[in-house]
Amino acid sequence: MPIDNFAAMRQSIIDGAPDQAASLAKQALAQGAAPLEVIDQGFVPGMSEVGEQFAQHKIFLPDMLASAEAMKAAMGVLEPELKRQGSERPMAGTVVLGTAKGDIHEIGKTLVGTLLTAHGFRVHDLGVDVSGEQFAAKAREVAADVVGVSALLTTTMRGQRSVIETLDREGLRPRIKVIVGGAPVTRRWAEEIGADGYGKDAQSAVALVKSLLDKHAVADRAGAEAHIVCG
After folding, report:
1. What pTM, to 2 d.p., does this model score?
2. Residue-by-residue pLDDT tens, the chain, 231 positions
3. Which residues of 85-95 are buried (b: 16+ CB within 10 A; e: fewer)?
4. Helix %, strand %, coil % for the chain, to 5?
5. Can you name the CATH fold of 3-86?
6. 146, 178 contact by CB (below 8 A)
7. CATH fit for domain 93-230, picks 2.40.10.10, 1.10.357.10, 3.40.50.10960, 3.40.50.280
């Protein structure tokens, strides 16, 4: 696949052009390109660039939403072909997302899910007004690595604490990491409720998830090595 084609795919995401993104994806498949290569070298770099620009306040929420729609359009073309070929993207981890009980805001949470998916994570989005019990049930069902809880109101931030307490009661912590975010959420609040981290925006949330899972993998390897030595 020519580099120019990848550059055009990347630009379609930056421009927030879903029709163009879908068209480029279809053209690539018609030319015999591997869908995984198209995703990882064409479209993901565009979404990464958009995330960085958003974090640096160079673009704004409407731009980010448009880019997310373009990414979804491209993936809508490419994912069926991946399944048809019997191949899958290597998964970086499994994440369950949702907005806390009593809260119906979802734009920020949806952006986090889009970026995580673009970076190779399997994302299960539970939507809005999600109870701790619902988070725990889904996390257990899909063997989640990370649970992300959004809250856009000071009155619903307590729901984030409730999710952590529920995961604790059901014996799912500390194996499952919990991250929190939302306009009123702070690092201090995350520490107070025992969350594993806080993401101030979608891009930093992706970086946080990657960091937590990298540390988790290192700890698992160290534990396995210790078991071998001691055993």
Report:
1. 0.77
2. 566 799 999 999 999 999 999 999 999 999 999 998 999 899 999 998 998 898 888 998 899 889 989 999 999 999 898 888 876 677 889 999 999 999 999 888 988 998 898 888 999 999 999 999 999 999 999 999 999 999 999 999 999 999 999 999 999 998 999 999 998 999 999 999 999 999 988 888 999 999 999 876 655 544 444 444 434
3. eeeebeebbbb
4. 60, 10, 25
5. 1.10.1240
6. yes
7. 3.40.50.280
